[in-house]
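Table S2 (text version). Query chain:
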Amino acid sequence: MKILLLEDDFILNESLTLYLQKHGYGVDSALSIEEAEDLSFESDYDLYLLDINLPSGSGLDFLRSLRIAQDYTDVIFITALQDMHSMALGFKLGAMDYIKKPFNPQELLIRIRAKFDKPIIHYGNLSYDKQAKIVKLHNAVVDLGAIQLEVLEKLLLAINQIVPKDEFLIDLNISDVALRVAITKLKQKLDINITNIRGKGYILEAL
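Corresponding structure-token output:
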């Protein structure tokens, strides 16, 4: 899932970008409406996260211009504004949700997942049911160990992004050797290309 974040507060922008990327989302960030306009013309997104009160204008006006251009991408507003008029206008323009500042990034993550995350991830001939923890290759169930499942899930949730080696080691509480063994077994059992980026981590590239 690819997200465009428009937030003029540099620290909040950077922290949200890193947080969402850590949890498997592709994020392009903009500090101004002009930057967001350029990005929206260059790429397709699954979700816009838009601040409303910006030095360069209003996130509401940006959304209006998107709708005029027949861009109907889902929108969640991030705003400190409390007035009902702005909320009503945002929903009228097609916003699907609001989150009010200040907020815990986890709250935003929960809202995004509730609205967009699909329980089954597809990758070529491979499918992974996140809830049931079942992996299938060509519709046949593949038996994976617990560590292999956790490693695979992290890679599938971060397609085209490097997952740092330390993230595997710390989150899964495993050794470097155990990680290498798990990745080797995943390659053998699932016939997928997991690339080791020396000194950084591992990546599963989009097919």
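Notes on Table S2: The chain has eight helices and 14 strands. The chain has two domains: 2-116, 120-204.
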